[in-house]
Amino acid sequence: QVQLVESGGGLVQAGGSLRPSCAASGRPFSRQAMAWFRRAPGKEREIVAVITWSAGDTYYADSVKGRFTITRDNAKNTVYLEMNSLKPEDTAVYHCAAARPKPVTTYYYTRYYDYWGQGTQVTVSS
Fold first, then answer.
1. Which of 83, 79, 82 is nearest to 115 (CA)?
2. How far apart, in whole angstroms, are the C-alpha atoms of residue 116 and residue 126?
3. What is the structure's pLDDT at 60?
């Protein structure tokens, strides 16, 4: 069984920074990409950032470009989300997700991902 465990969320003032992480454990598995999604109260889950596992290519939602950076540590099976210049609208539960290899790479869609973490709360106060 594969487990994804997020940590590193918290409460921060607007303009501050956080760096949540997501560690994969359990049964080894091949992954094509990992991502961070978020769900704000009353809203749908939305993509934040994606990183391909082999090449390290990255993709970002327009709302976080230039502020957030996704990175990975292959040896530690961990993905990070460096969040800077945080805004109150970034408040959400942040989930990481992992996708096994697939012929079609629909990175921005939740259905592409096979494993999900429970989430870590990020709250940005104004």
1. 79
2. 30
3. 97
Residue 24 near residue 98, CB atoms below 8 Å: yes
Tokens of 45: 């889950």
Q: How far apart are CA 35 and CA 13, in angstroms?
A: 25
Which residue spans within 14-119 are E strands per DSSP? 21-26, 33-39, 46-52, 58-60, 68-73, 78-83, 92-99, 115-116
Greatest pairwise CA separation for the chain in angstroms: 43
Task: Provide the pLDDT for residue 98.
Answer: 96
Write the CB contacts of 96 (distance below 8 Å, at least 6 apart in sequence). 4, 6, 22, 34, 35, 36, 37, 79, 116, 117
Average pLDDT over residues 3-13: 96
What whole-number distance in Å separates Cα of residue 53 and Cα of residue 61?
18
